[in-house]
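Researcher: Structure prediction, please.
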Amino acid sequence: MNMKQIVRIPLMVLVIAGSIPLPAFSQKAAMNLDVDFADFKYDEEVNYLEVYYSINKDGMAYRKAPDTGFETAVHMLVKILDGDSIISARQWQMRSTEEDTAAVDGSQSIIDCVKLTVPPGTYRLAFIARDMINTQNGDSTETDLVIEPIPREQLAASDVQLARSIRRIAPDDANPFYKNSLEVMPNPARVYGQGNKYINFYAELYNIFSTLKDKEFFVKYYITNSDNKDESELSPEIRTRTGTHDSNVIFGALKVGDLQTGSYLFHLEILDPDEISILSKSEKFYVYNTERIPERSDAVAMNSDDMYYQGEFASMSDLEVDDEFARIRYLITTEDLRFFNELASLEEKRKWLFYFWNKHDTDPSTSLNEFRFEYQRRITYANKFFQEMGVEGWTTDRGRVYCIYGEPNYIERFPSEPGKFPYQIWNYYDIEGGSIFVFGDTQANDEYQLLHSDVRGEVKNSSWESMLER
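Model: Predicted structure follows.
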């Protein structure tokens, strides 16, 4: 079994002394960076790693392009880490242009990939994106990376790449998604649903001719839900070993858009002629189906319609709804963002917000939603103490950290160290066994940018001290 776990996806609960628990997500900026990867056979020493990523077009800053339209520029950095050692790294500038930024919305993404060769081993993959036009805007993610050796004497397989689409095309080495006569378009978020009803998959088999004694073998692919129930009900597909090629490409698609909202596993198995499994791979993905939402707990669902119509959400204006949704961007997932942007009516958006807060209510037996109350208190505090150059405090780096993680246990302030710009170190004793956030005013204009943190998923920079030198 080979399952990837991106840090940003799960919901974790952070308990901060003296405050109500709030979800602690990895950095979730407007960019909404999503990252996925798959590795393939290369040679006896290293594997071929493809890292796929997507960034929301409306999450980047734009400026007037020299010729026509508008351009954006993002500095990208991907690192493969073995402890503190960098095994492989790549950095580049991602640029794109738009004729009219008014046409850009949250449903549009830039999708690309970067390719590396990595020896087998257990690593961490860090991916950092930083807006070069608005330097306070960025996103990052970090995940475990296991590169398994591909044996020469037995049947083996690459990772299974879960894709948005797969189609046959003419050879095109300039296309980053081209391989083996196919264009395999990644789905870095691994989210499927009504707008993307089919999960496409691609994998490579190795050592077929040299290890399989029988001409025929079976390929089985299916989906299981969280209860391990098979949702696909397909019969194994017969494949015939032909020629002397020792590898084989397996790809296909399954309809998943009608499944209930939730997480699932995609399984790929190779069976011998007796239909006994001899190799298997599994990958996790997500379905977001507006017509099949899991039932909430009885405590939350009880009289929910009455609660909605008697509360403030039922009478919110367009502007109030947009403002409420904007303020919860640190709490929502990529699929939440995409779903909300697809809602057509004001009433649907009002109800989505109502159920979002109800779902997170820490004590449904009371009339007060303690979770929402605490989050709004943090935003109010951030606006009061972290406002910078006319920008609302909750949108600044310090404001974001405060809204997500709450008040630090201790703040070290360094306003006038010789030869250094002002900076602060926020200490949290209860996050991951003790963590820090370093903010620096590197332009000497009272705007503190997050330079480094050792919290998983946040911006990491071991040379942050050098950034403070005047």
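Model: The chain has nine helices and 25 strands.
Researcher: Thanks, that helps.
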